[in-house]
Amino acid sequence: MSDFVLQDAEAHYGATRVLGPLSLSIDKGEHVALVGKSGAGKSTLLSLMYDRWQKQPVALMPQALGLVDTLSVFHNVYMGRLDRHAWWRNLTTLAKPWKRDIDEIVALLDEVGIGEKRWTPCGELSGGQRQRVAAARVLYQQGALLLADEPVSALDGPQASKIMGKLTQGYPRTVLAMHDLELALAFCTRIVGLKDGAIALDAPSETLTTASLQDLY
Amino acid sequence: MPLSATTRVTLGLVLLALVCLALGDFEISAHDPWHSLGHLFLGVIQPDFTAVDSLGEALLRTVAFAFVGVGVGALAGMLLALVFHRWWVRTFSAFIRAIHELFWALIFLQSFGLHPLTGVLAIAIPYAGIFAKVYAEILDETDPLPGEVLPRGADRVSKLVYARISQAWPHLVSYTAYRLECGLRSSAVLGFVGMPTIGYHLMAAFAQGHYPTVGALLLMFYLLIGTLRLWVRPKILPLYLLAAPFLLGTGLPIMWANVTRFFTEDIVPAPLRRGEGLPAMWEWFTRLFVDQALPGIWNTLLLTQIALVATGALALLLFPLISRHFTGRFGGVAGHVVLVVMRSTPEYMLAFILLQLWGPSMLPAVVALALHNGGIIAHLIGRRSNEVTLRQDAPTGVDRYAYEMVPRLYGPFLALLFYRWEIIMRETAILGILGIATLGFYVDSAIQEIRFDRAMVLILITALLNIGVDVLARRLRGHLRLRHGVNRQQC
Predict the structure, then answer these.
(1) Distance from B82 to chain A by nearest Cα, in Å?
(2) Structure confidence by residue, pLDDT tens digits, B209-242
(3) What is the Cα–Cα distance from A109 to B271, expressed in whole angstroms?
(4) Which of B243, B238, B185, B232 is nearest to B376 (CA)?
(5) Which stretches of chain A sit within 8 Å of chain B by CB?
(6) Which among A112, B13, B210, B229 would be 20 to 30 A from B413, CA to CA?
(7) Which residues fall within 8 angstroms of residue B97, CB to CB, at 6 or more apart?
């Protein structure tokens, strides 16, 4: 029995139903790619999941990333673990970070290739760099499930693959909204296709090809 | 030709001001006003920096009171801003900021006496009310997303600081720095009621007819405000804040018996204190209202109306001074200097000076209010005009002013003017302390007669009047659909 289950879930925008009713469960070891046309309900489904599973350790990487532009790359990543420390320690970290935290975070930043930007305010970064900071934040945060909306949309080929690899290795379960079908098939174990707010396809990746997914579009 | 809503409102306000003008007293009663004015100008041109032994001390105290007052106000305002969604916090903040610094000073002078605490609280309390509102607005404008993606278990303080305050930080800092400039002006003016700041020395120099000293004090004051950006740096600000409380001077010790008596007896309405019951209380109140509050309100409204229109007229007349569509580089610099001097001089200080020169009437008050507020609006409108791009063959001179600029700027101009309405009224009421029969005059008289219960009621009425005008101005802005970004330049 999985902890992450949706049963006949719906989402409404005003009086109109924009999603569902749909049922879905995510088991350990599953990496789910949400695919479908824009407006099919991918982002809505992600925020519905984030909302439903509040009690569990879920990390969220929204499309707009949610970085604080005035804070440095280091501090934005550190924010992933604000719940692990007392408030006074968090406040002290704003002025003077602990060496242990710096070492750990810089190692992580080096892995995603922006270690040298550690003290740069996020507002000064390019789109691709910002996306890597947000990825580093959720990797630092850890948890039982990662929900990410287009996590590599601003990255080029090799970099996108690298980050996809890290994200799927860093969490026991992931749900990633993807528009790049090849990446989705390469890194995810399961593909869920959405069409007009309903699940139109749910199958293991190895049974699918990019061609067989075209019906969704 | 049908008149637009904006034109109708404008004509209505001007007409009302003309009626008020006919009803008010605008005589120059001084024996030889131009003679004194000439002396003052000579004093500014040939200032005497040696005459005030305590010139340095006056400056130091002015700065110290401003820093401590604004610092305490900012801290309290931030705490209030965090709970600003509660209606009673909003009401409380609106109330404490509707009472002018000088009224707070008058209240605390009666309880704490000439102790530094009086000056600090007089600035800190109304500023806390203003900071609460603006900080809450700034925090509201931050992006909520960083807070939403934080781990759910994070504590409230960390969430607040990392996700909201960090985003708002640059805006919070720049607004607080701007308020510090206001604080310097407030601090200087507190001298007029006895605090050891510039106003006190200015008053003394005037009393002795020592114009070169007056000139020196004014120049030092402009220098202080003009160079604010050079000596107030974020890096050394904590140092100033730590040092300032020790530089307030000692003043006179607090008599705690006085404090208790003031808050438990003096401000309790006399009939209640004597146990005469509610009918006597009602009679006491109606007499106070009819004999003092009503004439005070009448004169305050009269003066506010005239000052509002005069401010608007002056602003429209002066904004070309700093507009690149009318002046060259050299003229622009000169224009900036004129407007900086106008808006750096507190109304109260200007009114005090003009009153010394022209004698008591409404004239010095109107001129002072119009010069200060007109300077501020002209500055903001002039800056706005520089954002306008004209076509290459646009007319020049008066045609450019009347056809190209004013029609484009009139909306923002009216919005700014309405924003300042409440401020003009606050200041009008306070100018009464100088002897013009607005509400402040009756407050001050009641205090002179040691009738603090009456003074408190009159101060409350003044606060309500301010809140009322603010509501009216907001309605008018809504009615005319005027929007001018968020204008937080409030002093």
Answers:
(1) 17
(2) 888 888 888 888 988 888 888 888 878 888 888 8
(3) 74
(4) B185
(5) 54, 57, 59-62, 64-71, 75, 79-87, 90-91, 94, 137, 141
(6) B229
(7) B126, B127, B129, B130, B133
